[in-house]
Amino acid sequence: MNYFDLPKIDLHCHLDGSLRPQTVIDLAAEQKIELPSQDPAVIKEMMVAPETCPNLQEYLDRFALPIQVMQTKESLERISFELFEDAAKENVKYLEVRFGPQLHTQQGLTYAEIIDSVVKGMKRAEALYDIHGNYILSLVKLLPIDSVNDIIDAGVPFVGKGVVAFDLAGAELDNFAHDYVEYTQYAREQGYRITIHAGEQGCGQNVYDAIELLGAERIGHGVAIKDHAEAYQRVKEDVVGLEACPSSNVQTKAIPELKAHPLNDFHKDGLAVTINTDNRTVSNTTMTDEVTKVMEQFELTAEDYKQIYTASVEQAFASDDVKKHLMQFV
């Protein structure tokens, strides 16, 4: 099977974890930011997490350098365009990118300017390539909570025009969902779909709470439901999409090794599991790499892939027209 040529859908990809090393060098020069090297290989090494990190924080540290150069409208638009371009060139037909607007205000950009910039980059790529996309606004849980509604409000003019959903990301404490009920409810009222990072480093109860309390329609990662019967059943009954990120889960020790990843068991049991990159640069991966690893590790067939692709279309926060377009490829 030619994995490169397969049509692919990525529903869980972070903008700040998916920069080209040369772009970091170019933008640092433009913005007078001093780098330890001008060698793309050295810069890439600073941005790629080890294959197995001692903890999630070691993985998250790899975002520091990219964030530095993502503080202008021009840099955000360029990085967004390049991510969609890179995905399109490996036959990704639809891509949902998430990012935290709070991380890009260091030079005074407003939330509206930040969101507008990334959407512009995406639309430029859509005009040039056979790819469709949308943005997801992520609240980073360690950052101030009092600006959450401001971010939601800033994104409202873009809902259905490049922005589709609201997400909670960052370090995962047990029972975190209780602190965010009013914010996700407000986001839903403003027309956002909801996907929540849960059950990655935390417990399966977090997944149950994300669905029950926050109205999550999809779960980022969700591997911990394998040890939590109630959460597992809720995901299955409600057809909640699971955004599996195999390489990332091994790196962050969410699972010990790829062969232990529960996504194949989830798939066999009829759960709506999807395959995603998480962070193309930090995890040093592509959708082709992720699909190849999963297909070969679990000896999946073309029919299995068709089912996973179809689940991805069904779980996408895309318009009906885009979904119809995506189903032409299976």
Describe the model.
The structure is a single chain. The chain has 330 residues and is of the alpha/beta class. The protein has one domain (3-327): Metal-dependent hydrolases (TIM Barrel), CATH 3.20.20.140. It has helices at 21-30, 40-47, 56-60, 64-68, 73-88, 111-128, 148-155, 181-189, 204-212, 229-238, 246-251, 263-268, 287-297, 302-315, 320-326; strands at residues 8-14, 92-99, 132-140, 163-169, 193-198, 218-221, 241-244, 273-275. An 8-stranded parallel sheet has the order 1-2-3-4-5-6-7-8, sandwiched between helices. The longest helix has 18 residues, at 111-128.
The overall pLDDT, averaged over residues, is 95
Helix and strand pattern? EHHHHHEHEHEHEHEHEHHEHHH
Give the second-level CATH assignment, the architecture: Alpha-Beta Barrel
The strand count comes to 8
CATH superfamily: Metal-dependent hydrolases
CATH class group: Alpha Beta
User: What low-confidence regions span 5 or more consecutive residues with pLDDT below 50?
Assistant: none
Structural class: alpha/beta
**Count of separate DSSP helical elements:** 15
- Give the percentage of residues in beta strands: 5-15%
What is the count of structural domains? 1
Family: Belongs to the metallo-dependent hydrolases superfamily. Adenosine and AMP deaminases family. Adenosine deaminase subfamily.
Domain Adenosine deaminase: 7-328
EC number: 3.5.4.4
Function: Catalyzes the hydrolytic deamination of adenosine and 2-deoxyadenosine.
Task: Kindly summarize this structure in a few lines.
This protein is of the alpha/beta class and 330 residues long. Helix content is 43%, strand content 15%. GO terms for molecular function: 2'-deoxyadenosine deaminase activity; adenosine deaminase activity; zinc ion binding.
